[in-house]
Each structure stands twice: as C-alpha cells, then as structure tokens.
C-alpha cells in the first residue's frame, strides 16, 4: 500500500548527521521534482542544493536555530522566480516546440492564452501563484522521499528576507519559499514515535 510509506514518514526533527543521502538517491528525488506538475507547465521556481556548511549555518540562524538545517544530509531551498513575465512564457513555448517537434505557429494560441493568464496578475500575485507551484512540487518530493525511505522535513519556519540575502537570491530574480531537509532520522528522534494527528476522513472528505 502506498499509504504505508506516508505512515512511515514524519517531519523529522532530529537527523543523523552521519547518514548521508547518496548522489544517486538525490538525483532520483530531484527527478521527481522535475516531473511534478505545474500550472501551464511553467515551473516558475528553482531548487537550490545548499552544500556550503557556512551558508547552512547562517540559514539555520535565520530559521530560529532549527537543527535540521545543518544536521540533515541535504538542504534544498525552493525559490520562486520573481520575474515571471512574457519572456518566461515565450521560453516555455520555445521549449515545448522543440521537445514536441511542433512549429511555434502551432503553439501561438497556447502562448496567447498563457500570456493572458500571467499578464492579468499583479507582480505580487505572480509570486503567490509561483509559490503554489513550488509547494506542489514539495508535496511530490515528500511523497517520493517516503517511498525511498528517505526522511524529510518540509520547512517554512525561516525568515525569507534573511535567507534571500544569505544566498544572494534577489539579484538572481529569485525569492526563497520553502525548504526541504532530507536525510535519515536519528535513532533517538523523539518525534519518530508520535502518533499522527490528522482529521478524520469524515471531517476531511466530502461527497456531494
Ligand atoms: C509547508 C510546511 C512547512 C513546515 N515547516 C516546518 C518547520 O519549519 N519546522 C518543522 O519542524 N516542521 C515543519 N513542518 C512540519 C509540520 O509541522 C508537520 O508536517 C505536521 O505537523 C504534520 O506532522 P508529520 O508531517 O510529522 O506527519 C512543515 C510542514 C509543511 C508541510
């Protein structure tokens, strides 16, 4: 049952710093992020694998000292593109044309449609919309990690402005949105044995 993987996983509070995720496992996880669906397929975010210990130490400070940031095997920072504009849509259409062997003319109506949807949003709404796409990809990552018996802690308990400064994201047209720390749980993580607190199916699901 797929749900047994989701029962196994939990938001890991204490990682074993010596238990590393292999490069092959990391690439498999990232492939799942790459394959995650996004609205119109625009993928308006980047995922930054922060490997520099000094940067991770600074980010930990900007994340109310949460130890996962430095103790997990990898820190992945999901950062949204702040410049989602006509050029970004055109780039996507270029890629779609090449990938599917289509002429750009064939894709012109789709480009017009996507441009219309993006252009009607205020800059702040575009960022919010991009964040939704990043969170969805995070959800895919959480599920993939569980299936691979890799632990993960999704995190948004950090100061975005500070993290953007530490990683120099603003200059690159990016804004930090959510983190995923991946690794393996410490044998004595007290959070590992906690019962899941979840609404009942009756509370959560409706049939109309
Ligand atoms: C978007 C998001 C942000 C979260 N941020 C943090 C965080 O900053 N620190 C933390 O320890 N847990 C964080 N969590 C973990 C949640 O508290 C946890 O997923 C929730 O309580 C359900 O528990 P479980 O995942 O262990 O089943 C976050 C989870 C999500 C999905």
SSE blueprint and pairings:
Elements: H1 2-8, H2 23-35, E1 45-50, H3 53-61, H4 68-71, E2 74-81, H5 86-100, H6 104-119, H7 123-147, E3 151-155, H8 160-167, E4 174-183, H9 201-204
Antiparallel strand pairs: 1-2, 2-4, 3-4
Helix pairs in contact: 2-7, 5-6
Bound molecules: flavin mononucleotide.
Flavin mononucleotide binds next to strand 3.
Q: What's the short story on this structure?
A:
The chain has 208 residues and is an alpha+beta fold. The chain has helices spanning 2-8, 23-35, 53-61, 68-71, 86-100, 104-119, 123-147, 160-167, 201-204; strands at residues 45-50, 74-81, 151-155, 174-183.
What number of structural domains do the residues give?
A: 1
Bound molecules: flavin mononucleotide
Q: Radius of gyration, Cα only, in angstroms?
A: 19 Å
**How many runs of DSSP E, i.e. beta strands?**
4
Query: Mind telling me the CATH superfamily name?
Result: NADH Oxidase
Describe the biggest sheet? 4 strands, antiparallel
SSE sequence, one letter per element: HHEHHEHHHEHEH
How much of the sequence lies in strands comes to 5-15%
> Which strand order do you get reading across the main beta sheet?
1-2-4-3
Structural class: alpha+beta
Distance between the termini: 27 Å
CATH architecture, by name, is 3-Layer(aba) Sandwich
**Poorly predicted regions:** none
Shape: globular
Number of helices in the DSSP assignment: 9
CATH-derived topology: NADH Oxidase
- Overall pLDDT metric: 97
User: Helical proportion?
Assistant: 40-55%
Overall CATH class: Alpha Beta
């Amino acid at each position: 049952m797929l749900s047994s993987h989701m029962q196994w996983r939990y938001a890991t509070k204490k990682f074993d710093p010596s238990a590393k995720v292999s490069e092959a496992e990391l690439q498999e996880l990232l492939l799942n992020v790459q394959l995650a669906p996004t609205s119109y397929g625009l993928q308006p975010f980047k995922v930054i694998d922060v490997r520099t210990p000094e940067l991770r130490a600074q980010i930990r400070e900007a994340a109310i000292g949460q130890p996962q940031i430095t103790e997990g095997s990898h820190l992945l920072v999901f950062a949204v593109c702040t410049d989602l504009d006509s050029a970004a849509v055109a780039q996507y259409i270029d890629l779609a044309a090449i990938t599917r062997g289509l002429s750009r003319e064939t894709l012109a109506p789709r480009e017009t449609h996507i441009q219309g949807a993006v252009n009607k949003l205020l800059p702040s709404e575009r960022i919010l919309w991009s964040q939704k796409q990043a969170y969805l990809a995070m959800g895919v990552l959480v599920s993939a990690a569980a299936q691979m018996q890799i632990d993960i802690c999704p995190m948004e308990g950090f100061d975005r402005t500070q993290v953007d400064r530490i990683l120099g994201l603003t200059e690159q047209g990016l804004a930090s949105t959510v983190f995923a720390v991946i690794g393996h749980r410490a044998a004595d993580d007290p959070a590992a044995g906690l019962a899941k607190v979840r609404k009942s199916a009756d509370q959560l699901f409706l049939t109309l």
